[in-house]
Design brief:
Elements: H1 3-60, H2 65-80, H3 84-105, H4 109-113, H5 115-150, H6 154-160, H7 174-177
C-alpha cells in the first residue's frame, strides 16, 4: 500500500470517529431535553392542581394562612423558573411546602374526610409518582450524557463542539432530605 492510501484511510477513520461521536452527543443532548420536557409536563400538571388544593384547605384551616401562602409562593417560583438549576431549586422548595400542607390536613378531621380534598390529594399523589419516575429517567439520560462529556476520547469532541455536562435533578439541602416534623 502506498503512503497516500494509508493517510487517506487514517483521515477517513478520524472523520468517521468525529461524525459518530458528534451524532452521539446530539442524540444524548436531545434525550436529556426530551426527558426534562416530560418531567416539565408532569410538573405543570402539579402546578395546576395546587391552587385547587389550597382553596379546599383554606375553607377548613383559616388560621394556617402563612403555610398556604408559602405553598403558592413556592409554586409560582418553581413555575416561573427559566434555567434548569432554578427549576430544580424551585421544585425542591415546592415539594417541602406541599409536605407542610399535608401535615396541616392531619389536624383537621373534617378536611381529611372531604371527598374533594381526598380526590385532589390522590391526583397530586399520582402526579408526584409520575414526577419521581420522570426525574429518575432524566437523571439516567443526563448520566449517560455527562459520561460522554467526561470520558476519553469523546471528551475531546465535547470540548471541540462545546457540549457541557448537565445538572442532575437532586435534592439540594440536607434539611429537605429529612422527614417533615409535624408539631401542633
Amino acid at each position: 500500500m502506498s503512503l497516500g492510501i494509508i493517510i487517506l484511510v487514517i483521515v477517513l477513520v478520524i472523520a468517521l470517529f468525529f461524525m459518530v461521536s458528534y451524532n452521539g452527543f446530539v442524540r444524548a443532548k436531545n434525550d436529556c431535553e426530551e426527558a426534562f420536557s416530560t418531567m416539565d409536563v408532569y410538573m405543570k400538571k402539579r402546578y395546576d392542581l395546587i391552587p385547587n388544593l389550597v382553596e379546599t384547605v383554606k375553607g377548613y384551616a383559616k388560621h394556617e394562612q402563612e403555610t398556604l401562602e408559602k405553598v403558592i409562593a413556592a409554586r409560582n417560583f418553581a413555575q416561573g423558573a427559566t434555567t434548569i438549576e432554578d427549576k430544580i431549586s424551585g421544585e425542591n422548595a415546592l415539594t417541602g411546602t406541599l409536605k407542610s400542607l399535608f401535615a396541616i390536613s392531619e389536624a383537621y378531621p373534617d378536611l381529611k374526610a372531604n371527598t374533594n380534598f381526598l380526590d385532589l390529594q390522590g391526583q397530586l399523589k399520582s402526579v408526584e409518582e409520575d414526577i419521581a419516575n420522570s426525574r429518575k429517567y432524566y437523571n439516567a439520560v443526563v448520566k449517560l450524557f455527562n459520561n460522554k462529556c467526561e470520558m476519553f476520547p469523546s471528551n475531546i469532541i465535547a470540548r471541540i463542539f462545546n457540549f457541557a455536562a448537565k445538572p442532575m435533578f437532586e435534592v439540594d439541602s440536607e434539611e429537605e432530605r429529612k422527614n417533615v416534623k409535624v408539631e401542633f
